[in-house]
Amino acid sequence: MRNRLSANFVTGKLSQMDPRPDEADLIARSRKGELAAFNCLVEHYQTPIFNLCLRMLTSTQTAEDAAQEAFIAAYKHLDKFRGGSFRSWLFRIAANACYDELRRRRARPAASLEEPTGEDDRRLDVADDAPSPEERAEQSELRQTLSRALAELPEDQRLAITLCDVQGLDYAEIAEVMECSLGTVKSRISRGRLRLRAILLERAELLPARFRPTGEEP
Amino acid sequence: MRLPFRNPHPHNDISAYADGELAPARIPALEAHLASCAPCQNELEAMRVLQSQLASLPEIEAPRSFALTPEMAQRPVVAGPAPRIRQPSRVAAFSSGMRLAGAGMSLALVIVLVLNFSGGSSSDSGDNALVVTGANQPEANAFAASPGDASIPKSINDEPTPSAVSINDNGVSSPPAKTEDTQSTSGGAAVGASPAVAPDSLGVGGDPKVLSPAETPAPGGVVGAVPGSTIAQDTSNDGRNASAGEATAVPPHAANLDASQDTDSGSSIDTMLIIAIALAAGVVLAFAGSWMLQRLARDRS
Q1: How far apart are CA B151 and CA A40, in angstroms?
Q2: A197 has a chain B CB within 8 A of its CB
């Protein structure tokens, strides 16, 4: 899971388009206004960015919008990228786009999309190559419950957990994305997990037996 | 070895440990705790299960390409809800300032406690006595100078009034003073204000009735007095005064003072004075901190 992205960078789609894609070179060319170079970067990062937005916003449509806004903002503000991890910088812009969207939702609570819809759940819980129908059903149940529980976490904790456990970033990268200290990252992840576990314990009956959380809250 | 956990169950450390992100220095303590705490073992196990479940959530392919069209690329930055690059907000800056303030206040509180504690024991009571003489009885200053401790007369020469010396001797009681010194120095304006205002406010402090009103009008001055005078003394005494040296130099002559000058009222006045300094330090540090952070934020943008 960890470093999945950097591994993909060598073996993924981008390398098929360009045998030795050099991120720094693509960024430099994008800064000069070469849209094709920037779109190579978009192509490479769009899936993780979209997934981050989807976990944060739980709605496919708004996640698409937020991801698109994030890439536009990144292009416009490329001059503000001062080296370091481009992935973290992109994630930060995407996270901010999500925070903006969540803020807009709070401003109009009637139209709140905080609760994931059934359609979105299906979207979030697409089963991959599970071998048997039973296992597939169990996995799907687990993912659905997990996705709903994740969506109930406070935004900062949800972002930290998504970046850590779903996207596989390390604490230093998460601190960069969230613009906070390592201590804050550590505490957000820990509190997020404890809360997630508490939510799952509450809904243990919804989970297949072998996935039920066990043990008392310490 | 004593476990460094204030909280009976170190949740944050368990979670970081599950990620392989716990600082190496904390690992032995956590492992020792885990060995003897069943709930924490369960929690670690649960964290690992949760991690693998979250990692198994499928990555969903982007439903469409987010490649920018020339129209999108030319869209003015101001148009639409373009996500901003987040800057620390005023609230965040103020809360950081408050954290600095908290640090300042607890530092001063430690000094108060140390002074109160040392006031009770016979060996260290000299510190307390010296403060009393400085704040209450200006003429005692000449007395303080006489016993032959080289560091004291020298610093008196550097200071406008004897009262500044007394505060300094408290403040100097070592590492804490140094910390406060650097904090206020980074705050900028506070240090500059110190020498002029310090004598006044401290002189007033000698009278218990006037003390409390006097602490409010000039907090900057009072705070500045501590680091300001410390700097003066450090630079003038060629390192003789530096930290440990100072600590050993004070007691002998202070013991003399203790015999002749100790008064009952002095200790409470002294405590009040330092609490006032602590509060003022907190306020000034809060504002200095938030001002600095806001300026940093502005510079970055």
Answers
A1: 70
A2: yes
